[in-house]
Design a protein that fits this description.
Heat Shock Protein 90, 2 domains
């Protein structure tokens, strides 16, 4: 008992620890992304400052050459050194901020289509100027600091553009990495939990097998020692039925984790059998609940009889728990709709708030003070994983009851 309690405590503390690891990984990823963005942004600013200095030097060179007080000489260094160092687009405009003809000569690193007309080239350059001015303030070329000769508009070099987009590209790939890592981590965790549940189910079936076999043997031995009147007594029949029930439960647990054998079964017969089982046991719960199958028309679908009975039993038990006043109704309907088979289990119990319609199928979720909250989760897994169907809340409202629908493929 102490060991079992310790295992439960360990399982409960493992969940927060796993959650803390995920949060820590996410925080670390955002720190890395933030650091990368900051570092790249600082590089872009440094390169932009360098380009501004080069553009400013180019403007001052033009200003120097345009100054009438500039002595004559060889100024080839301006063309050879300064202009050659420009690797970003530059457009020179006149004092009215209009592109200067010849456009090809007065632009640098601009892909100008010479097949266009002069007006078309001018319009294209003016559109580029608008884009350039969004990033960089144009530089004035003046004489004696008063007379404006022209303006120098400049954009970004291909290197700066690539660096500007680099953090977003990195962020995109980091986001993909985080998503893949998170999904992989969740899948591994889910697989581990599934393996644990499968192992527990099979071990439970294995442990139940020996005492059940012994009980069957003891009942047969008891019957041999009894007279014919006692053999047919209700007590002996109930004992045999209960042992058979235990055997059925063990068989169900043994099927968890293995591929079920699906056969074409009449769902109405399966439902009626489960209803008869619960009708005998409802009075023992102290409740007055009417349990009925609304239609007995044969409805066939490929199911595993044992596992499908288990699903119905879990849904009926959930409906019984939802009826708190001691009196109520549970109805089951089976039919065919839009090419699929459905089974609806409805009750007039306390109902479910629809915002919790997905939470009720999560393992451990329960509104009751007792129980592990595994019934609906197990039922949904049997329907979806073993029968390739769906189990969901079709309709519900607080105080208005609930309807669960099982949806299966039609034959």
């Amino acid at each position: 008992m102490a060991a079992a309690q310790q295992d439960i405590l360990l399982s409960k503390t493992t969940i927060p620890q796993t959650s803390n690891v995920k949060i820590a990984l996410l925080i670390l990823a955002f720190i890395i992304v933030g650091s990368t963005l900051w570092y790249t942004h600082s590089l872009v600013e440094q390169l932009q400052k360098k380009e501004k200095d080069v553009a400013d030097l180019y403007a001052r060179s033009l200003q120097y050459l345009a100054d009438p007080n500039t002595p004559e000489g060889d100024y080839s260094f301006i063309l050879d050194e300064i202009v050659a160092a420009i690797d970003f687009p530059v457009i020179q405009t006149d004092e009215k901020d209009e592109p200067v003809w010849d456009y090809k000569v007065n632009t640098k690193n601009v892909a100008l289509d010479t097949s266009l007309s002069r007006e078309e080239q001018r319009a294209y350059l003016k559109s580029l100027i608008v884009l350039m001015d969004e990033y960089n303030t144009p530089i004035k070329v003046t004489v004696r600091d008063t007379i404006v000769l022209s303006y120098i508009h400049y954009g970004e070099s291909p290197l700066v553009t690539r660096l500007r987009w680099l953090p977003y590209v990195e962020l995109f790939f980091v986001a993909i990495f985080i998503f893949i890592g998170y999904m992989s981590f969740s899948y591994i965790k889910s697989s581990e939990q599934s393996n644990i549940w499968v192992g527990m189910a099979r071990e439970t079936a294995h442990q139940l097998g020996t005492p059940i076999s012994s009980m069957m043997g003891w009942i047969e031995l008891l019957k041999h020692q009894m007279n014919e009147h006692d053999k047919s007594s209700a007590t002996v029949r109930d004992m045999e039925n209960d042992v058979a029930r235990l055997q059925k439960i063990a068989d169900r647990f043994s099927k968890i984790g293995s591929k079920p054998d699906l056969k074409d079964e009449n769902l109405s017969d399966i439902i009626e059998k489960v209803i008869q089982y619960y009708r005998r046991r409802i009075p023992q719960s102290g409740k007055k609940v009417q349990l009925s199958l609304k239609n007995s028309t044969p409805v066939f679908a490929k199911v595993n009889r044992e596992l499908f009975e288990w699903v119905l039993e879990n849904l009926i038990k959930n409906a019984l728990d939802a009826i708190e006043k001691g009196e109520g109704k549970i109805s089951i309907v089976a039919g065919e709709d839009a090419g699929s088979i459905f089974v609806d289990v409805s009750d007039n119990g306390k109902g479910i708030d629809m915002k919790f319609r997905n939470d009720i199928f999560k393992p451990g979720y329960s509104t009751k003070s007792r129980g592990w909250g595994l019934g609906l989760s197990l039922a949904q897994r049997i329907v979806e994983s073993y029968h390739d169907g769906k189990l969901y809340v079709k309709d519900s409202s607080p105080g208005g009851g609930a309807t669960f629908r099982i949806k299966l493929r039609s034959n």
